[in-house]
Specification:
This protein is 31% helix and 20% strand. The protein is α/β, with parallel strands linked by helices. It binds zinc ion. Keywords: Methyltransferase, Transferase.
Length: 261
C-alpha cells in the first residue's frame, strides 16, 4: 500500500505534516508525521484507540502514585506563585482521582472531570460548571485526538493550564529509541516541542513556562521564569513551605460527603 506522504497537523492545521517513519504500536504498523511549522509529531489517524483503552489507565503504569505525589507538590508550589488559596481548581481527565484527593488533603478545593475513567478516590467532588481558576492536565496532551478542540474546551473553563507532557527530543528519535512513544499501550498519539507550545501560547494569548521538557504552564499573568524553574526543580524543598498556606480538607470533606448521603 502506498504511504500517504502528508497529513494535516492536528495542532496548527498546516496541510503538510510530513511522513517521517513507521513503527510497531500494539500489533499495528503505524505511520508518524512531523509538522514543519509547529514541529508537532503525530501518528496517523489513530484507529486502534478502542483497543488501547481497554483499561483507561494502562497496565504497564507502575509509576502512577509517585508521579501523582510529585505533581501535587509541584501544583502546591505553583499555587503559591499564582496566589491561589481558596479558588477552585479542576483536574481535567482526573483518572482515578488520586491527584484530586492528594490536593484536597493539602488544602486546595480541587474537583475532577473525566469522560473515560471511573473516579475511585474523589467521589463527590466532580466538576459541575464551577468557576475555575486553574486547570491541571497531567499526562493528557499526548493522548489527545484533537488537541485544538480540547484546548478550546480547557481555555473556556480556565485561563490557566498547568500540564505535563514530555517534549519530543530533537532530532526526532526512532520509534524503538524513545519510550514515550508507548509502543506497548498505544495511547500516545501526539508529541509536542517547545515550538508547538509556543505556537499554542500565541494562539490563545497566554504566557508559557516550561521546566525540564516535562511540566508546563499556560497562564494569563506573567510570573518569574526563575521562580517557576526553582519551584519545579526543588519542588520537595519548597513544598515544605508552600503547603502551609492552606489547611487540609480531609475532615471537612468527610463531613461534607457524609452529609450528602
Ligand atoms: Zn503544526
Amino acid at each position: 500500500m502506498a504511504v500517504l506522504m502528508y497529513q494535516i497537523c492536528r495542532v496548527c492545521q498546516h496541510a503538510q505534516s510530513r511522513y517521517i517513519f513507521q513503527g510497531q504500536l500494539l500489533n499495528h504498523v503505524v505511520k508518524y508525521y512531523e509538522c514543519p511549522i509547529c514541529e508537532f509529531v503525530q501518528t496517523e489517524n489513530p484507529y486502534w484507540l478502542e483497543k488501547a483503552y481497554d483499561s483507561a489507565i494502562n497496565d504497564v503504569d507502575t509509576g502512577i502514585i509517585k508521579r501523582n505525589q510529585m505533581c501535587s507538590k509541584r501544583a502546591t508550589n505553583l499555587c503559591a506563585l499564582l496566589n491561589i488559596k481558596d479558588e477552585t481548581i479542576l483536574d481535567y481527565a482526573g483518572g482515578y482521582g488520586i491527584f484530586t484527593r492528594l490536593m484536597r488533603d493539602v488544602g486546595f478545593n480541587v474537583l475532577w472531570k473525566d469522560k473515560y475513567c471511573d473516579n475511585l478516590l474523589a467521589k463527590g467532588f466532580g466538576y459541575d460548571g464551577q468557576n475555575i481558576k486553574l486547570l491541571t492536565a497531567f499526562e493528557v496532551f499526548e493522548h489527545l485526538e484533537s488537541p485544538i478542540h480540547t484546548l478550546d474546551e480547557m481555555f473556556s473553563i480556565s485561563s490557566n493550564i498547568f500540564f505535563s507532557t514530555l517534549l519530543i527530543p530533537e532530532p526526532t528519535p526512532k520509534i524503538e529509541d524513545w519510550w514515550y512513544y508507548g509502543q506497548r499501550h498505544g495511547q500516545h498519539i501526539g508529541f509536542y516541542r517547545k515550538k508547538t507550545l509556543e505556537y499554542l501560547a500565541k494562539k490563545y494569548n497566554k504566557n508559557l513556562y516550561s521546566y525540564n521538557a516535562e511540566i508546563h504552564l499556560f497562564s494569563e499573568v506573567k510570573i518569574s521564569k526563575l521562580f517557576y524553574m526553582i519551584f519545579m526543580k526543588f519542588y520537595k524543598l519548597f513544598y515544605i513551605y508552600t503547603q502551609r498556606r492552606v489547611s487540609s480538607r480531609i475532615w471537612n470533606d468527610y463531613i461534607e460527603v457524609g452529609e450528602r448521603k
